[in-house]
Amino acid sequence: MLNIFDDDxxxxxxxxxxxxxxxxxxxxxxxxxxxxxxxRINDSQDESCDSGNRPKRPIWIWVLAVAIVALVVYLIxxxxxxxxxxxxxxxVDKEEIAPADSLPIxxxxxxxxxxxxxxxxxxxxxxxxxxxxLFIGDNPNADKSIKLAVPAADIRADNGNMVGAYVxxxxxxxxxxSKMGFCAIIDGAINIGMAENTxxxxxxxxxxxxxxxxxxxxxxxxxxALKPKGSRLRKALAEIDGCIVIVxxxxxxxxxxxxxxxxxxxxxxxxxxxGSNSYAFMRGNxxxxxxxxxxxxxxxxxxxxxxWRSR
Length: 311
Hints:
The chain is α+β, with helices and mostly antiparallel strands. The protein has helices at residues 28-32, 59-96, 199-206, 255-265, and strands spanning 13-15, 38-40, 109-117, 120-128, 130-136, 146-151, 166-168, 171-174, 181-186, 189-194, 210-214, 216-219, 222-223, 235-240, 243-249, 267-273, 280-283, 289-292, 304-310. It starts with 12 loop residues before the first strand and ends with a strand.
């Protein structure tokens, strides 16, 4: 067999023979004075027949490989940090959400002021941001959520029931129309007026509301003429400038004098409340209790109040 190379190769080497070239081009390796490249078989590293002429990879390949590795590391770290921040924000948001029973409520305001009308001293109590209800019992101040309580319907001497129609949480407890004034409480809102029949009575029974009867004092800015029943301390539930106000006399007055004073105050409508020395109270935001009148030493089971609670 014809040997076309000048040198021999070992058994563990192979020779790479280039493609055929024209005779004119000749062997480029011989023209350049270099020996053909050969590789050892089973060696871990390829090796040129001439160690000084090993093939070299272009440097841009190494630069590109390093750049790719750096980019991958950067993306992994960025994704990890982003996930940590997202998780951290989620935790903070969850901690800041308050339970439903601890959500902030509207601030309760029970203001009290004094004035003088027609020479009579009056006390005005304004409940704000409260829900009105009726309360049956002799000790409403035991309930700390009650901010204001004033006696509502009178009690009959013959049978011990409330005078006139009385609805408590939608239940009719007594009937009658002996007094034309009324107070209806629907969904915590108060409506007062004077009428023999009013649809608010049915609405109170249908919606679980409250309703009671009392003497009317003012109707549509006009005082109601009532027979004088002597002078005593008076209490009224009045609508003044669109707000519900409890008006209590510091001086003794007849019902007529009291009605005139309410009109002078600007009352649109007003009804009488249990007066004289009947017990009432208001509670400040700090829990302090201001009491008016005195408790009955032997309270009647149907003693009742109109009260205001926190919303």
